[in-house]
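INTERNAL AUDIT FORM
Audit reference: QA-55
Scope: verify that the stored structure record matches its stored sequence.
Auditor: D.O.
Record contents follow.
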Amino acid sequence: MTTERRLPTWLKVKMPSGQNYSKLQNLIKTQGLHTVCEEARCPNIGECWEKETATFMILGDICTRACTYCAVTTGRPTNLDLEEPRRLANTVKILDLRYAVITSVNRDDLPDGGAYIFAQCIKQIKKKVPTCKVEVLTPDFQGDWESLKVVTDANPETFNHNIETVKRIFPRVRAKGDYELSLRLLDKVKDLMPDGVTKSGMMVGLGETKT
C-alpha cells in the first residue's frame, strides 16, 4: 500500500487574493510597471502583496541573460522606457512607501547596462517622496565602473548585488556572470558609497556542500 506523502504546512501557500493584493495588482498594471514578484513567478506574491510589499523591476521584462534559476523571460529587449522613473516615483507616492526596493533585468544591450534609468528612478523617488529610502539591486554592469558610479552618485541608501551562489556552482547557474567580478563590484561600491549600506544575497539548495 502506497501512502501519499503530505507536504509540510509551511511549504504550502494560499492562492493570491485579498483587497491589498488586488489594489497593488491594479496599480502596477495601470502604471505600466513590472515587479520581480510577477516576472520571476515568486510563490510568496500573495502574502507579500497583501502586506503591500513588492520589489519593482525596471528596464522592461525581457532579460539579456539566462540564469538557470530564474523564470524571467530571456530575449532581446526592443526599447528603453524613459518615462518609467516618473511612473515608478508616482507609484511609490501613491503607496506612501517608506522604503522602496528596485531591481532590474540585465540589459547588456545598453552601453551603460541601464545605469541611467536606475539613477533616474532613485532621483525621481527622492524628489516626489523625500522621506522614502531607496534600495537598488543591480546587475554587474559588465564591470563598467563608470556606469556603476552613475547609480551610486544618485545616493541610494542601500546598494545590493547578489552573488546568488557559491563559486563552484556559479558558472552553472549564472553562465553569463562572473563570480570574481561580482566580488569586485561589491568592493567598488563600498569605495563609492562608504557611508551607505552594501549588501549581497545567496540562495541555498542549488548543490552546495559543507566543504
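Auditor finding: record pair retrieved intact. The chain has a mean pLDDT of 90.
Action required: none
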